[in-house]
Specification:
180 residues, alpha+beta, 6-stranded mixed beta sheet, 3 helices
Length: 180
């Protein structure tokens, strides 16, 4: 099965992301837009995993020690592609989030996973193959307190891409929250 680690969001934050996606949809001539239930921030993509790798991924998540964090959404941007762009909601640069990513990659690499080595750019995909009339832009910032990390399964159910949490790790609550 295809797996990835992700941060999922509260209904309030999902509503804000849906509004951004819908604004993009209105301004677009074409595209495939992310379903409401699929809005998330990928921390690390694992790809196809057998039972052994799935168990390892669950164990790694269970051993993770991380405090609850606050992330800030502050822009809408895109990755340019010839067949249409990938548009996303961007997360403000964060030392804590980057450290969590590096630690996860280190642990995964030590247990035999092949993980991407490119620079981590945290974002929430709003749509793919988008051709639209707007440009990347800043938005009024909004925040989410992230209190858990999920191991997610990606699959097609009746032709619909569906993401399902298969294991969750609550973060410890700290009265001195770091912003990520």
């Amino acid at each position: 099965m295809r797996l990835f680690y992700a941060l999922n969001f509260s209904p309030r934050t999902c509503s804000r992301l849906i509004s951004l996606r819908d604004e993009l949809k209105i301004a677009s001539y074409q595209g495939s837009f992310t379903l409401d239930d699929n809005l998330h921030l990928t921390l690390v993509f694992l790809g196809e995993c057998d039972q052994r790798k799935t168990a390892t991924a669950i164990n790694l998540l269970a051993e993770l020690d991380c405090a609850a964090q606050t992330i800030c959404f502050d822009r809408v941007g895109c990755f340019r592609r010839a067949d249409g762009d990938i548009w996303w909601a961007g997360v403000r640069e964060s030392k804590a989030l980057n450290e969590l990513y590096r630690e996860m990659v280190k642990q995964l690499s030590q247990t035999g996973f092949q993980v991407e080595s490119r620079r981590y750019m945290p974002h929430i995909t709003l749509g793919r193959e988008i051709i639209c009339a707007i440009q990347p832009h800043a938005i009024d910032p909004f925040y989410e307190q992230v209190t858990s990390l999920e191991l997610m399964k990606s699959e097609r159910r009746q032709g619909v891409l569906t993401y399902t949490p298969i294991h969750s790790k609550p973060f410890s609550l700290d009265s001195n929250l770091d912003c990520i």
